[in-house]
C-alpha cells in the first residue's frame, strides 16, 4: 500500500526494494490533469517506479518513465557500461513538491579494482503533455549532479597509485623542497614504490574530445597512505645540501661502509641524475683500483721505488702528468700520494688486462648489476691490453664511473669488503643486492688505508682521502672534472665537480665541509 504525502511533508525515507523474483512493480496513476503539477502521490509513485526499474537493471522500462526515453536509455547504459557499474542501490530520501532527492550507491569494478561510490542526486516529476502521464523530467544530472545536460559526457573511473611519503631511516620525511639536490632520487622512489602503498580509484567527467582526460569529480577508493622508509639520513643530507649549494655541476654521495647504506646524495642534474646514472672517465680517481690490484698481485709494496717520470710511453702512446710533476726515485706511496699518472701507466705493464678488470669487478663490485632501489649505472672496466690497459690504469680510455661508484670504492677500502650501496631495504625493492666474489686481503686493505691517509697528509685533507682530475673533451663546457673522496669513521664521501685547474679543489672543499659537519 502506498503512503500518501501532503505538500507540507519534507521528509521521505522509502528505499526501493527488490523482490526475490524480480523488481517490485509500481503502477503509475493514469488519471490526473495534464496541465497541473503532479500530486504528491503521483510524484512518489513515479519516482519509485523509475528508481526500482533502474536499480533492477531494466533500463528500457526506466527510460520509458522519463520525458526523453531514447536519451535516458543511452545515458543510463553509458553510466552502467563506461563507469563500470555492476549494481546500484537507489534510496529516495526527500520529497519537496515535485522534486525527489535520492541516494545512489554504485558498486564499481574497474579492471579488477573494486569500489563503492555513494552520492545524492535529484529528479523532478512532471506531467508529460504528450503522454498525459507523470514522468521523470529527463536531464543528465539525474544520474549525477555534475553531468552536463545534453549527453556527450561520461563518468569514467581510473585507477591511480597513491604517492608515498618518502622518509629517511629514522622516519623523518624528505621533500625536494627541503632537499633540492635529492629531487631526482625522491621522484624515482615515489614513482617506483607507489604500488606498495595501495591503489586508489577516482571518477572523472570526460567528454569525447578529452582523450582520457577530464575533471576529477570523486575519489571512490582511497589508496593507503604509505610511508617509504629509505636508507637516507636527513641529518647527513642537510650537511651535504649546505656543502653543495651554490656549487654548479657538483655531485655528492655519502655511504656508510659497514652497511652500504646510502645516507645522502646530491646532484644538480635535471634530465637524469649524473651522480648515480651518469658515467664518464674518472681519471686519476681510478688509481685506487689500480693500486689495490698492484698490491694484491704482489707487483709492488708501498715502499717500492717505482719513480714518477715526466712522461711514459706505452706501445707508442705517451702519457704525461697534468701538473708536470716528476720524481725519478719516488716510492709507490709517493706516486699514489701525488697521483702520478706516468708512474701508474708504467706499472700497468706488471698487470694483465684481466688482473685489473677482475680487481674492479670481483673485489670492488664494479660492472655488476647493482640493485640499489633506484636507477644507477654501476661502472665499467673492460679487459684491455697495451696502451689501452695503461690508459685504463689511470682512469682514461674505456673506464667509466660516477660519483656513487667512487663513494663505493672508498667504502670498500674502509671496510675491506664490498657492500652494494642501498637506497632502500632489499625487502622493499624485492631485489637481492650484488655481491663481490672476494674481499680485500687484510694486508692490502691496511696498505690502502695507509696510502689514503698519506694522501690526506700530503694534501692537507681530513681523514683518509684520495682525489684527482679527469680531462674531458677539449670543446666541453666542463673540460676538467675534479673527483675527490674520503672516509672518516663509518662515513665514505665522494664528490665530483667542474674545476678551473688540474687540481680537485672544488670537489675536495665539498667533501671537507661534509666531514667537518658530520664528524
From TrEMBL:
Protein name in the entry: Penicillin-binding protein
Domain (Penicillin-binding protein transpeptidase): residue spans on this chain: 251-488
Ranges where the NTF2-like N-terminal transpeptidase domain occurs: 45-149
GO terms of biological process kind: cell wall organization; response to antibiotic
A Gene Ontology molecular function term of the record: penicillin binding
GO CC entries: plasma membrane
Species the sequence originates in: Streptomyces griseofuscus
Stored Pfam families: MecA_N, Transpeptidase
